[in-house]
Amino acid sequence: MKIVLRLSLFLILVVGFMQMTGCGSAAELSSAKLYREQRNFIKAEQLIEQGLAKDPTSDELWALYMKNLFDLKKYEKIASVIDTASVYAVQNRAQVELVRRNTWVELYNGAVAAYQQNPDSKEQQDAAIGLLQSAIQVYPDQPEAYELLGDVYYSAGDTVKYISTYEQALRQVRSLHDQGVALGLTLKMEPSAAEAAIGGAPAKMKTLPLQSEGDSILIYSYPSKEAYIYFVRTKRQPKYQLHGWRFTTSEALGDAPLGVSLQPYKSIAQVHLDRGNAALAKGDKGTAEREYDQAVPLLIAVQRLDPSDQSAGSIIPDIYRQLGDVERAKSEYERMLAERPSKQLYASYGVVLMNSGNYQGAIDAFNKALEIDAGFENALFNIGATYQNWAVAESKKGGKDASKEMYAKLEKAVEYFEKVHAINRQDFASIGYLIENYEILGKKDKASSYLTALDNLKSTPAANSPAYWDLVGKVYAKVDATKAADAYKKADTLRK
């Protein structure tokens, strides 16, 4: 059974509402307001509906209707009429969008609670499904509802609906994701990098608190591009990182943060991979190729959205290696690069080539990324990693020149890891390679200085990562077993 519960980073439940504006003079509107003052929301609902029957385009009545339904906790009814309310409540649209946001929160959290109560219960699954379907009706482009709905269907054993849910999610958000990538945006970017990509500082910025204490979200607004960009900072990740984006002319909608989720891409790709692997195991190469061809574009989309996600880049060459056709992977990337070249896509292509053993081709691809952005840390690091892997490959060849070639490649790896370190002193991965390589190259003083640099990161945000402590443990395993054991314990604690 698969149970994956995701709580949105930005579930902001606003309990107070702005005062209604407008100059509606209908008797039903005035009476409804009076009943609301008496907290008789049921009678107010009756009068508002009578008023809308007489004047179905009333701005103030629609806005009051949404607020009253929310007070009555009729969230699923709101889902069925909120789009109509947004059309007619022109002057009060901000209030309607606030109701939309809070209604989505209630529906989503209600679904989480229902499912979490007993994930194996059909009754609880059905309750969660109904709430999530209404949540999707309220916000069709919000990814969390699709993901949880897919998980519920998975628990219910309904694979067809599990996949169709994720396919529906992709239909809603794929063009939106492509718009952001076209502007140069990628997940986990810091604000300065996003500003450089999009062409300057935002016209407006604001910070909102998140549900978890100490967490917050930063919103960048670019009205000229109709763009809102969202950065999240958590206690575990103290720097703001790009979490998603939205394109809209509505400030109220722009202030409702929207995350970019990779889960729909990965889930659908995995189904095609599983089918392809099963077909290949039976010797049905034709079916395997068709299934893999469905998976590859989705995996490439993952890399374009998040270049730091290396899993997709390692899967693609494996697919075609199994089929005996690595050139297919290369041609798919080359087609994408011809259509829309970007530093991120060049970097992803480089990883595919590196994992395929085409080290020079990988370096060429990473250098193409550097032609676009000379300080692109991802490409610099991966050139170092490519030379590192190349050195290992040379050492395995044997022969009189193997050692010479290995050392030459390690020297090049060091050159690029030094460049990464100059840009980002907290990149502990590059420090780890520098320690290892300088020891192999016999430069003990250099290795010692970088060991000190690694130790100095213990009081920085880098120490919040279990990978940092794993590296410390690995480095000290050769010289101090006690320090190594302590480091591995800290890594395990952070992973809990």
SSE arrangement:
Layout lengths: L26 H11 L3 H14 L4 H13 L3 H14 L4 H25 L4 H17 L4 H13 L3 H24 L8 H8 L5 E6 L6 E7 L4 E7 L7 E7 L3 H4 L8 H19 L3 H21 L4 H13 L3 H14 L3 H13 L3 H14 L4 H19 L6 H22 L4 H13 L3 H13 L9 H11 L4 H15 L1
Antiparallel strand pairs: 1-2, 2-3, 3-4
Tag the structure with descriptive keywords.
single chain; 496 residues; 4 domains; 67% helix; elongated; mainly alpha; Serine Threonine Protein Phosphatase 5, Tetratricopeptide repeat
Characterise this structure.
The longest helix is centred in the N-terminal third of the chain and has 25 residues. Strands 1-2-3-4 form a 4-stranded antiparallel beta sheet. β1 and β2 form a beta hairpin. With 496 residues, it is mainly alpha-helical. The two termini are 21 Å apart. It is elongated, with a radius of gyration of 27 Å. The chain is 67% helix and 5% strand. α13 packs across α14 and α15 packs parallel to α17. It has 22 helices and 4 strands. The chain folds into 4 domains: 113 residues, Alpha Horseshoe (Serine Threonine Protein Phosphatase 5, Tetratricopeptide repeat); 72 residues, no CATH class; 112 residues, Serine Threonine Protein Phosphatase 5, Tetratricopeptide repeat (Alpha Horseshoe), CATH 1.25.40; 90 residues, Methane Monooxygenase Hydroxylase, Chain G, domain 1, CATH 1.20.58.
